[in-house]
Amino acid sequence: MSYQGRNAVVSGERARSRPRLFEEVRGRLRAKHYSLRTERAYLGWIRRFILANGKRHPRELGGPEIETFLTQLAVRGKVAASTQNQALSALLFLYREVLRVELPWMENVVRARRPVRVPTVLSEEEVKRLLASLEGRASLLASLLYGTGMRLMEGLRLRVKDLDFARNEITVRDGKGGKDRRTVLPASLAGPLQQEVERARTWHQQDLRAGFGEAWLPHALARKYPAASREFGWQYVFPARRRSLDPRDGRERRHHIDDAMLSRAIKRACGNAGIVKPVSAHTLRHSFATHLLEAGYDIRTVQELLGHKDVATTQIYTHVLNRGGRAVLSPLDR
């Protein structure tokens, strides 16, 4: 066989091996119940790692190549520490969970600097202006995030059964770190949330009549309670207007609304409300915690409502208690 012919065979084998590798990674991620967001991120980093090394198969690479790749991200790419850590986690998953290769400890990696930042917090007056500039479901969802301290995806993934109107309580399932917790259901949102639940009920009944009506359930629950996915209690509080194909199994379901909808609405509302601070959905969570501490609530209570593992994480919100930086009263104001 000629040199060119051998090269063509090798290139063909590599081209066939890459899709198989990605399929193996995807299958392992789903077997371990990683989220679709994490799946997309990990596959993206693995693809970048392969391209950065001349499209060589990861089995031909190892610790030194990973060190170089991560260092280049920090030095040339100037990525954030969290971005570099995500890339490292993706490659560790690839080698440990898929290729079954133990990597040496990578002590020579140049670490991206982790900046120390305080969270952006809106004043109560700014929150009112922001919420007044929102409409429809975006307004209700933003109000819910501010009124409960939930993260954006926790709010979007809320199920009907986890709203307890009698106790003014919301159960947040499978939050960050896989933990459940309870938070307050604002009395002022009880009526609008009940209307949203009735909308979800109407769409669910229509889906059932059309032969659909399944909600996605975590794998263990889906196996244990095979009929639960069609029960109304498991439907999303904020369902999407249209059904879509679930990329995990190809089944047509009604998922929750897209998180980008709220992000776009908040950006427009900030412009209309004259708010110049950088505001995201997570800013509402920061504001919830800060305003509770300003109102005199115990930091342990706020910690439990937010679902923080360590109270030290919650203490970051004490930076704006009533008097600005570190709750210090300026000598000019004495």
UniProtKB/TrEMBL annotation:
This protein's name: Integron integrase
Superkingdom in the source lineage: Bacteria
Residues in Core-binding (CB) domain copies: 16-99
A Pfam family this chain is assigned to: Phage_integrase
Keyword Zinc-finger tagged: no
Keywords noted in UniProt: DNA integration, DNA recombination, DNA-binding
Residues covered by the Tyr recombinase domain: 117-330
Family per record: Belongs to the 'phage' integrase family.
